[in-house]
Write a structure and sequence with these properties.
Length: about 290
Amino acid sequence: MWLLYAFVSALLAGMTTILAKIGIKSTDSNLATALRTIVVLLFSWLMVFVVGSQHTIGMISTCSLIFLILSGGATGASWLCYFKALQLGNVNKVTPIDKSSTILTILLAFLFLGEIPTMWMGFGIVLLAAGTYLMIQRRESEALNVKSKSWLFYAVLSAVFAALTSILGKIGIQGIESNLGTAIRTIVVLVMSWGIVLFQKKFVLIRDIDRKSWIFIMLSGLATGLSWLCYYRALQEGKASLVVPIDKLSIVVAIAFSYIFLKEKLTKKAFAGVLLVVSGTMLLLF
């Protein structure tokens, strides 16, 4: 059953990227992240009460709570970096970098969770790395554009924190109902994101957000909430080294939607990179 949850998570994550990209087009990325998190928090706690797991809060061990908090912190950092990168760069360049966190996740799962990578995983990692490299190559016309360079820094940080999120989350949700674990993590993300917004005094920009941006920010938050619930249910039941690669197939959804709705076209080299990334991801599942 975890396989179905993982694929649904990937589909929703791909939709989240496009919805968020449209929503933050004329909105500060940190503020948009904080607003999205409110939607995710409300939805995740709604699911907690629907399944009735709120009664098990007192049964959470100190160790699990610590790892859930750390996972939430890593998630918040990953989100802030990811949506900043999305605001500065194209979806079809930012997404491959973020999804390359699969490689680091597999290494961390081997070191800390004892999940032994197979030979196929080794081949898959090589294809992932090669495909990501091809996809982030800039056209000559972009080479001198400072803005086109700055997204890379945030995208790399996003990938690092995303890998830490998966491992810390895997440890934290052991023995805990997955919806409750997700809801607790979201509280941390909310506090972290709004803390940054208040520190930067960007909350005053709320009045400048137009209706279209509001709609897409809220929709991206809802899609994120649904994706999270599916992802951490899959992570609870399956191996991190298998669940994470499936979730990263959201890159296909994100790139397809970016072509349809954002008119972001792929070069032949980038398209070859997509094929390598997908092939590498499928190999990881063996």
